[in-house]
Amino acid sequence: MTDFSYLNNQFLIAMPNLADTNFSHTVSYLCQHNEEGALAIVINRTTGMFLPQILEQMEIDASLPQIKDTPVFAGGPVQQDRGFIIHNQDEQVWDASIAISETTSLTSSRDILEAIAEGKGPSQYLIALGYAGWGAGHLENEIINNSWLNTPFQEDILYHTPIQQRWKQAANQLGIDINRLTAPAGHG
Quick check: is 3 in a domain? Predict the structure, then answer.
């Protein structure tokens, strides 16, 4: 049996030469990666919407002042009408949640949005519409073909780094100035 090394709880950093408009200059948080494929949420591209707009569409009270400027991210090209919340672990249990690590979960249920709207949700979170998905072996092939770099997840980048700096900051973890990378001249 082949020994697979999965990249759960990692950042995927798009290489500068990645031309796919869905992923050009993105950094994604890899939430699930196994023999069946991968699921990630893009964390540096917003939709132009803010959380109250989503809550109002769901008929959830959106009057809490501290949520008014919470951006909604474009998590990826798959199921763009479905919401995903990356958040810190807490004592609460949500209806549809998976643990990504000891400190971070991914939830896709209404109850967490209701709690956030009431000021009773997790202390740190990112809300996205859609996700990025790969079938079995597809992400691995893209990494081999120099489309992506990966680096361990850092909460500070996800929750505290300005959105426009996340791509560069994630690459900096590797000691790389991502803007200086070029496409390989050829394969040996």
Answer: no
Residue reference for tokens 């200086």 = 180
Tell me, yes or no, whether 88 lies in a domain: yes
Kindly give the pairing relationship between strand 78-88 and strand 148-152.
Answer: unpaired
CATH number at residue 14: 3.40.1740.10
Assess if residue 5 is contained within a domain.
Answer: no
Rounded Cα distance between 151 and 153, Å, is: 6
Is residue 168 helix, strand or coil? helix
State the Cα torsion 63-57-69-123 to the nearest 10°: 80
The pTM is what? 0.90
Task: Using pLDDT thresholds of 50, 70 and 90, give the confidence band for residue 180.
Answer: confident
Residue 84 belongs to what domain range?
Answer: 10-180
Q: Is residue 188 part of a domain?
A: no
CA angle 173, 178, 179 (to 5 degrees): 150
Distance CA 175, CA 188 (A): 25
Domain count for the chain = 1
pLDDT in tens, 50-109: 999 999 999 999 998 999 999 999 999 999 999 999 999 877 788 889 899 989 999 999
pLDDT of residue 178: 83
